[in-house]
Amino acid sequence: MNVLVLNCGSSSLKFQIIExxxxxxxxxxxxxxxxxxxERIGSQALITLQAADNPPIKSALALRDHRAAxxxxxxxxxxxxxxxxxxxxxxxxxxxxxxVVHGAEHFKxxxxxxxxxxxxxxxxxxxxxxHNPSNLKGIYAARELLGHGIPQVAVFDTSFHSTMPETSYxxxxxxxxxxxHKIRRYGxxxxxHRYVSFRYRQLAEKDLxxxxxxxxxxxxxxSACAIKRGSSLDTSMGLTPLEGLVMGTxxxxxxxSVIELLYHKxxxxxxxxxxxxxxxxxxxxxxxLTNDMRDLIAEAQEHDDRRAKLAIDIFCLxxxxxxxxxxxxxxxxxxxxxxxxxxxxxPPIRERICRGLEWLGIEIDEQANAAxxxxxxxxIGKPGSRVKLFVIPTNEELLIARDTVRSVRNxxxxx
Length: 415
Ligand code: ADP
What we know:
Layout: E1 2-8, E2 13-19, H1 22-27, E3 31-39, E4 44-51, E5 57-62, H2 66-78, E6 95-100, E7 111-112, H3 115-123, H4 132-146, E8 152-156, H5 166-169, H6 175-181, H7 190-204, E9 213-218, E10 222-228, E11 231-235, H8 257-265, H9 270-279, H10 282-287, H11 293-303, H12 306-330, E12 335-339, H13 340-345, H14 347-354, H15 366-371, E13 378-379, E14 388-391, H16 396-408
Parallel strand pairs: 1-6, 6-8, 9-12, 12-14
Antiparallel strand pairs: 1-2, 2-3, 3-4, 4-5, 7-8, 9-10, 10-11, 13-14
Helix pairs in contact: 2-4, 11-12, 12-14
The chain binds adenosine-5'-diphosphate.
Residues 219-221, 248, 292-294, 297, 340-342, 345-346 line the site of adenosine-5'-diphosphate.
């Protein structure tokens, strides 16, 4: 099956075409046939399209909305010039898989999209006002352009965490707030945590029951997940992706009283405070320079910049604290898995996180660590490290394509 995987943001559309089916999943033989990104939808959009191993083609074009952006993608992929293997007409796209950020308590697994599901996703808009409307735009556009005959599947960032117990997901505020408004922790990045935990099982030859690990997704957004017996037991993001680790522009855990203080002292509106916490904090806020870890590492190394170093220190310390907390919560773990742009590509950050945790059985191998970046997968712990250390590049699109196939074929999900 050729699955079109769509990930729609407020002004962006990312896609891949992946050929996969139940037997290719079994043999790990899925094939990525095309990928691309459209940014700045709504004005002069920047477009990058790439078929198979051809070089990427970049262009700019005024695209009014997500429908126009998807229309552009679809026209390109079926055109002979695009040279997408096996795609010559709309009939060659067999299913669509959508990344949907918030499934709240409605969606505990990936589902085929029908009108009820669309209503369910709309119901979650209150909880994810920035994300779900964009995801819905992708769904509406795909329905309109590809027709109702092509099955579409929603894969939720939250659903992997639906196994969290009440003790992990409830905030210690009056219980009625949960009952009335479903104010609770949901967790995000579930597709990534689930994918790397599945790969860990393959690499370490473990079955689900014996998968007790901590996964660290460190990208622009960052989250940690405690995975016990293969299921999410706890995760660092909460009601929204703002809680937990320090991220590119989000500060993570904070005393809520800061909000009241900012409101009074800076005369900021709630919307401004929300923007401060989501867009101006984290690595960017502390360093005053950038949200990009690569540039911070360069600033720290080349110019000994105090605030760049401070941002890195606070980032690593927060990850360390979560590792400690999750080891306590899980009564120990067999492995820690690093993923995401920083987790996959920044050996010095991985080293900083692990340094000082030897007494917990976490021993990083400097050479192995220094050699793993740029999409490589493998172990970075010393041979005797009680807690194994892995780098596993995430692949959320692949998991979305596989869930789409399994949902369409009505096959059970084994991981
Ligand atoms: P997103 O969460 O948007 O998918 P990514 O997972 O791509 O983002 O992660 C982006 C982060 O990864 C940025 O902070 C970027 O600086 C960092 N990163 C990418 N490559 C490197 C590298 N070689 N060294 C350090 N950080 C890197």
